Each structure stands twice: as C-alpha cells, then as structure tokens.
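Mods, move this if it's the wrong board.
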Amino acid sequence: MNDLRRLGPIAALRQNIPAHAQAELARLIRYGIAGGITAIFFFLTIYLCVDGLGLSLSIATALGWAVAVPMNFLTHKIWSFESQRSYGHSIPRYAFALLCSFAINLAIAETLVRYFSMHYLLAQLLAVPALLATNYGTLRLWVFRPLPPAAEVTGDTTKPPA
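Not the wrong board. Structure tokens:
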C-alpha cells in the first residue's frame, strides 16, 4: 500500500489497468486528437461555404467532407491505429465506411435543421457523437484491423485475418 501512495493516484490507477486496455485507451485518445483536428477543418469549411459563399448545407457538408477525408484517413492509418495494412486494403474499406458515415451525418444534420429549425452548425455539432462512435468501431474492427501474427512475421499485408 505504501508503494501505491508514493506513485501518485494516476500511476496507482494505471498499475491496475491491463496492458491491452491501456493500449486501447491510448489509441482512443489518438483517435480523438486526430478527429478533433479534422473536425476543425470540417467545420471551418462548412462555415465558409454557407456563410461566406451562400451554398446550401448539403453542398457545404459535402465540401467539408472532401477537405477532411484525406487528412483523416492518413492520420488514422499512420497514427491513430498504426495500421500495417496495405493502402489497397484500407482505402476501399475506408471509402465505404465514410460513405455510410456521410449518410448518417447528412441525415442527422438535415433532420435537425428542417424539422427542428436548428442552426446548421449546432446540428452538425450534435451529429458528432454518433459519428465518433460508429467511425471508431468501424475503423478499429474493419478498416484498420490489426494483421494476424503470421502476417506480421512474413510481411504479408494483403490478406485479411482468418
């Protein structure tokens, strides 16, 4: 008990968390940081398109995604998930996952603006939790799923895990 007091509360708590849970928490934090940076670019693009250029919310949202997606893909592949999967494996899956996410985003934003007379930026902000949860799960479990141990040893990054 004395040793735990000397370590401090965070270190003492960390000692009780399994290594795999610590790794997942670190990945989740990296995902949040990368997503936060991407969100800044996304919201800035939407704001400039709607208030600056007078474009519709649908067009502005599409342009916001066009700006954010390449940056988001690379930061998540390289940093958040540290994926060893090939780009040929990851890009089509990422594109499909993001098309689904785009549909969810657009449905939430348009519903809140049209039927609840909500400001478009607030509607987009309220869509974020649903997008964060679905995207993290999809990216972690399908798009950037870790290679099986045999593929890591042989360097084969094209075959999906069994």
